[in-house]
């Protein structure tokens, strides 16, 4: 469902339709009660990357328009439609990102694992997925703690990109050491509760059941995906104009 | 001997990568329904002993083992780990490292799923285990979203679901605030009374441990050097203190009275026993409740000149996820003050402390550190004035060798190589680790790592030193060293800010306490005054030191409510007896 909606966001290049979809997704964000400050930081963090991506695309392409602001030595030019392109680019990426964000903030990792087990994947695979999710949070925590520890002793993560990367790379070995320690601790905790990778009879406490709204939502997002794909590629509507 | 018992016979153990034996000829029998407390300094082998009592040694940890461990009559070397795990469960020191799933329900179910319990049996056990630890209704919560006490109780619940015969708890109260300690403590006590589970608890907090344990065992350098029922165990208080054991304050008081010839009977180990002891010593001295004066406070002689080194105005801070951590904080810390930041886990102590260093910038309001607005200066500029010792040394050490670690901050300050060398030497000498300078940081363990973490901050010679919940405070010898260093630094004019749950350290060292609750300052007073404000302290979930609790119980005999050290209590007893004569 998330993939369908994300694909829809990318397929719609027509600015008004893209903005309407973005507005709808923003309503979804409000309903999901995702904290505004958190959103603000994500948008700020994404904006830089998106701007670089949009500008580099704009500067190396030729988008014809009524007014040409300037022409670049390699033949590319910047028109009012280049600006429109950048806005559309932003809108599509933000929409897709917000859809993923709603999914991540409203779906528990446990449900993802249960869904994997529902697909009858081997237990080891499901457990590995859960464990990776767990490790990601450990890794992020350890990373920020180490960055804080370095800053607390006068290290500044500023300067040229090369310098920043060099400083960040210095965190690799302590990060690995922390990870290995944590993994060792989790390993003992796992074995201490009877976990083994050998084939032993296991049961599960959660049983996933599909209900009506799951079917309705899956059908509607799939239908939306098919309709937008047909309109976009068979009739060439919703493309950038 | 079988049933719910643990029998250890001449156990020796050394890790695969170590040359030294970590356990040396341990002989220990834990009887059915018995609760045994294990105490001892860091590196004594306590956690290793726990691993051996749950079969993780030798099944999951590699090394060399001699001797035998029998759990419920079964030799741990002759059965699989899964068979042992059904009989003995271990609660690790850090509950977070024990969580392997992402909801409370899944966490408790994990062990049951591994053993293939039926759906109905699983639900029965989950409901029971969550009820026993007082966590019903939290099924879908993420384990990491729980409070510290709840995390520890969840970890305990996930072990209990398997209904082991033997429970092994590795420092279940460490890093917990007062109320969380009480939550976990009551749960363990409840288990002892209702289920009669055989329990082994490793714990530094002897004041709490004596309330629970039937027998105490002192482990040092891998050997059991002293054992006995709590009452008997602490009769040799002087020799125990020399072995890095935190003696309960009431026992210390009894020992002082006994040394001075005032008390000839057994030393008290609980508040109740101490109350009886003092009661008999000052019998006849009483004041009717109706004529009880307002809390008597010792005369305060502290006259701190007003010279703000940290000035906070209307500080509020909200984390990116929307959590409001600090709300309208106003605080002035003067040069040369020794301030303790107190409060429950999550009350905002660490968030506030990180603002002093510019690691966090205020959402609103401002902080002036030595005249500089933290919004306008970088952390790099602030670290020459403010030092920050992290709670966990593992989070603070990231260099190769000890020398590199201590020199790291100094080089960032732009000091000359000569100055770096000199300061590094001084700091390593101060924490008694100059012999470790060529060692790799990650090869060091426990106490040594804590000392290096401290040295790396001390070397920067900051005017303000923040020590945030140092785990060093749990070990007596290291705690004594740390407190001595902080006192010396304070005496030389440095400002010290100590965030800790150890009220004894606060009472003995800090001159002022700032109590945080829910991100707000609820009490800011001189330490003695604060401890007498029982209502405020209680509301913030804080418990005064044991000796102050004793004083408050003796209020009807005229004991000042704010006695905060054993010396003061001893002086009062002498004075009260003098008045009687």
Q: Layout of helices and strands, plus pairs?
A:
The complex is a heterodimer of chains A (241) and B (581).
Chain A: H1 2-11, H2 15-31, H3 36-59, E1 68-71, E2 77-79, H4 80-106, H5 109-118, H6 123-151, H7 161-169, H8 172-191, H9 212-233
Chain B: E1 6-15, E2 23-30, E3 35-39, H1 46-53, H2 56-59, E4 63-71, E5 74-75, H3 81-87, E6 88-91, H4 104-114, H5 119-132, H6 148-160, E7 166-170, H7 178-194, E8 198-202, H8 206-212, E9 215-220, E10 223-228, H9 230-233, H10 237-241, H11 249-259, H12 271-281, E11 308-318, E12 324-334, E13 338-342, H13 349-356, E14 364-369, E15 372-373, H14 379-382, E16 386-389, H15 402-412, H16 417-430, H17 446-458, E17 464-468, H18 476-491, E18 495-499, H19 503-509, E19 512-517, E20 520-526, H20 527-532, H21 534-539, H22 546-553, H23 566-580
Parallel strand pairs in B: 3-8, 3-9, 6-7, 7-8, 13-18, 13-19, 16-17, 17-18
Antiparallel strand pairs in B: 1-2, 1-4, 4-5, 9-10, 11-12, 11-14, 14-15, 19-20
Verbal overview:
The complex is a heterodimer of chains A (241) and B (581). Chain A is an all-alpha fold and 241 residues long. Chain A has two domains: 2-107 and 209-233, no CATH class; 111-191, no CATH class. Chain A contains nine helices and two strands. Chain A has helices at 2-11, 15-31, 36-59, 80-106, 109-118, 123-151, 161-169, 172-191, 212-233; strands at 68-71, 77-79. Chain A has a two-stranded antiparallel ribbon with strand order 1-2. In chain A, helix 1 packs antiparallel against helix 4, helix 2 runs parallel beside helix 4 and helix 6 (123-151) crosses helix 8. The longest helix of chain A is centred in the middle third of the chain and has 29 residues, at 123-151. The radius of gyration of chain A is 23 Å and the shape is flat. The mean pLDDT of chain A is 81. Chain B is of the alpha/beta class. Among the domains of chain B are: 6-244, P-loop containing nucleotide triphosphate hydrolases (Rossmann fold, 3-Layer(aba) Sandwich), CATH 3.40.50.300; 250-299 and 547-580, no CATH class; 395-461, no CATH class. Chain B has 23 helices and 20 strands. Chain B has a six-stranded mixed β-sheet with strand order 6-7-8-3-9-10, with helices on both faces. In chain B, strands 16-17-18-13-19-20 form a six-stranded mixed β-sheet, with helices on both faces. Chain B is globular, with a radius of gyration of 25 Å.
């Amino acid at each position: 469902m998330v993939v369908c909606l994300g694909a829809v966001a990318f397929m719609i290049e027509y600015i008004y339709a893209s903005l309407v979809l973005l507005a709808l997704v923003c309503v979804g964000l409000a309903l999901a009660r995702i904290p505004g400050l958190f959103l603000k930081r994500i948008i700020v963090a994404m904006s830089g990357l998106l701007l670089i991506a949009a500008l580099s695309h704009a500067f190396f392409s030729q988008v014809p328009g009524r007014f040409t602001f300037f022409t670049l030595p390699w033949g590319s030019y910047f028109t009012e439609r280049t600006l429109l392109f950048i806005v559309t680019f932003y809108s599509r990426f933000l929409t897709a990102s917000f859809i993923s964000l709603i999914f991540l903030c409203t779906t528990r990792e446990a449900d993802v694992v249960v869904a994997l087990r529902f697909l009858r994947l081997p237990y080891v695979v499901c457990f590995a997925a859960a464990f990776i999710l767990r490790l990601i949070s450990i890794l992020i925590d350890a990373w920020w703690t180490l960055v804080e520890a370095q800053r607390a002793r006068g290290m500044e993560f500023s300067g040229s990109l090369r310098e920043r990367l060099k400083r960040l790379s210095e965190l690799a070995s302590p990060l690995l050491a922390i990870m290995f320690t944590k993994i060792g601790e989790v390993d003992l905790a796992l074995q201490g509760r009877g976990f083994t990778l050998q084939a032993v009879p296991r049961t599960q406490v959660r049983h996933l059941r599909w209900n009506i709204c799951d079917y309705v939502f899956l059908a509607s997002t799939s239908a939306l995906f098919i309709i937008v794909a047909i309109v976009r590629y068979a009739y060439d509507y919703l493309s950038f104009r | 001997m079988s049933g719910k018992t643990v029998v250890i016979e001449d156990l020796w153990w050394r890790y695969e990568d170590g040359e030294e034996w970590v356990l040396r000829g341990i002989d220990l029998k834990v009887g059915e329904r018995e609760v045994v407390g294990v105490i001892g300094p860091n590196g004594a082998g306590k956690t290793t002993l726990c691993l051996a009592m749950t079969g993780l040694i030798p099944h999951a940890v590699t090394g060399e083992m001699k001797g035998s461990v029998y759990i419920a009559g079964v030799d741990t070397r002759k059965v699989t780990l899964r068979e042992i795990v059904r009989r003995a469960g271990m609660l690790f020191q850090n509950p977070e490292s024990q969580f392997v799933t992402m909801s409370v329900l899944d966490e408790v179910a994990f062990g049951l799923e591994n053993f293939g319990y039926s759906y109905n049996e699983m639900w029965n056990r989950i409901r029971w285990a969550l009820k026993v630890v007082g966590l019903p209704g939290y099924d879908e919560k993420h384990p990491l979203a729980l409070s510290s006490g709840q995390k520890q109780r969840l970890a305990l619940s996930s072990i209990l679901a398997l209904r082991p015969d033997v429970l092994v708890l590795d420092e279940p109260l460490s890093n917990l605030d007062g109320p969380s300690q009480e939550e976990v403590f009551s749960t363990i006590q409840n288990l002892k009374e209702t289920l009669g589970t055989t329990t082994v608890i490793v714990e530094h907090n002897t004041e709490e441990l004596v309330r629970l344990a039937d027998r105490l065992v002192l482990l040092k350098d891998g050997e059991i050097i002293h054992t006995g029922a709590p009452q008997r165990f602490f009769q040799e208080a002087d020799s125990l203190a020399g072995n890095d054991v935190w003696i309960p304050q009431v026992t210390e008081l009894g020992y002082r009275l006994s040394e001075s010839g005032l008390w000839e009977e057994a030393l008290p180990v609980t508040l109740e026993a101490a109350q009886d002891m003092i009661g008999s010593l000052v019998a006849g001295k009483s004041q009717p409740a109706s004529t009880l004066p307002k809390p008597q406070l010792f005369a305060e002689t502290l006259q701190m000149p007003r010279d703000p080194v940290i000035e906070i105005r209307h500080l509020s801070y909200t984390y990116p996820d929307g959590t409001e951590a600090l709300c309208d904080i106003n605080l002035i810390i003067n040069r040369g003050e020794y301030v303790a930041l107190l409060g429950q886990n999550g009350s905002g102590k660490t968030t506030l402390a990180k603002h002093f260093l510019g690691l966090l910038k205020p959402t609103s309001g401002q902080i002036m550190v030595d005249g500089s607005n933290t919004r306008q200066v970088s952390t790099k500029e602030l670290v020459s004035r403010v030092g920050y010792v992290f709670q966990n040394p593992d989070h603070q050490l990231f260099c190769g060798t000890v020398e590199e670690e201590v020199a790291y901050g100094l080089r960032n300050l732009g000091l000359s190589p000569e100055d770096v060398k000199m300061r590094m030497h001084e700091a390593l000498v101060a924490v008694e680790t100059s012999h470790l300078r060529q060692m790799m940081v990650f090869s060091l363990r426990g106490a040594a790592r804590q000392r290096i973490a401290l040295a790396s901050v001390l070397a920067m010679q900051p005017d303000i030193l923040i020590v945030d919940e140092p785990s060093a405070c749990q070990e007596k010898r290291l705690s004594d060293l740390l407190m001595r260093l902080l006192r010396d630094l304070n005496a030389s004019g440095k400002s010290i800010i100590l965030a800790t749950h150890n009220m004894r350290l606060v009472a003995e060292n800090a001159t002022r306490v700032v109590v945080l609750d829910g991100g707000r300052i609820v009490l800011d007073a001189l330490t003695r005054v604060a401890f007498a404000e029982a209502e405020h302290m209680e509301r913030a979930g804080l418990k005064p030191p044991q000796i102050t609790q004793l004083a408050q119980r003796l209020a009807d005999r005229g004991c000042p409510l704010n006695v905060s050290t054993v010396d003061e209590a001893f002086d009062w007893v002498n004075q009260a007896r003098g008045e009687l004569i």
